[in-house]
Design goal:
The chain has about 210 residues and is of the alpha+beta class. The protein has six helices and five strands; from the N terminus they run αββαβββαααα. The chain starts with a helix and ends in a 23-residue tail after the last helix.
């Protein structure tokens, strides 16, 4: 349990983790935004289904001694934020609403299979909404889509540049290989000329007078 996590629990208004769970309590996807011990985050996630059974059905949040669970049912799943108790519940609910739109947009639906399959895309999308440290970015779905498309385009551009360099180097190597072979053939035909990689002229005696003699 790190000092950063302790500060997050007691201090500023932060989201500790965002997760998607099945109705049975199995975690499909979880993203943490503050430095926390893995056992601690797993313990918090595992506690949620048990707390859900004791909570007030009229509310979509549950508080414990240390954290607040803010959640939203999505068909057969739960979208969950774990925050510290100092966080602004109104802001947390607004963040949850945005993530409830992000999830089907970038997973292609809200089934277990789609969420599991698109886990990496969801990490990037959730990171657009909540920064490292657990703070909300004021952004909408359109801006998230644009940012991720821009990142994707930059990555594609880098890959294209890299491929172009590789292709150019390959073409240059092939060209040099042809030039060398052509010179070797010319040298073999004419005789007496130096062939690449040899010390004596092909077809020549190799015993010419030394220069300056």
């Amino acid at each position: 349990y790190s000092p950063q996590a302790a500060a997050a629990d007691s201090g500023g208004m932060v989201v500790l983790s965002a997760a998607v769970l099945t109705k049975q309590g199995r975690t499909l996807f979880a993203r943490q935004f503050v430095e926390m011990n893995r056992l601690r985050i797993e313990g918090l996630l595992a506690a949620f289904p048990k707390l859900l059974g004791t909570g007030n059905k009229q509310h979509t949040f549950i508080e414990t001694d240390t954290v607040r669970y803010v959640y939203q049912p999505l068909e057969g799943l739960f979208l969950l934020l774990i925050t510290n108790k100092a966080s602004n519940i109104v802001e947390d609910l607004d963040t949850l609403r945005l993530l409830s739109k992000v999830l089907p947009e970038f997973a292609g639906g809200t089934s277990e299979e789609k969420v599991s399959e698109k886990a990496f895309e969801l990490v990037f999308a959730f990171d657009e909404v909540i920064t490292v440290g657990g703070y909300r970015e004021y952004i909408d779905l359109r801006q998230i889509r644009q940012n991720l498309e821009m990142d994707s385009h930059e990555e594609k551009l880098q890959n294209m540049v890299k491929k172009t360099k590789i292709d150019s180097a390959r073409d240059q190597a092939n060209h040099m290989s042809k030039v060398i072979k052509s010179r070797q053939r010319e040298a073999a035909k004419s005789g007496g000329l130096m062939a690449p990689g040899t010390m004596a002229g092909i077809g020549g005696g190799g015993g010419g007078a030394p220069p300056g003699g």
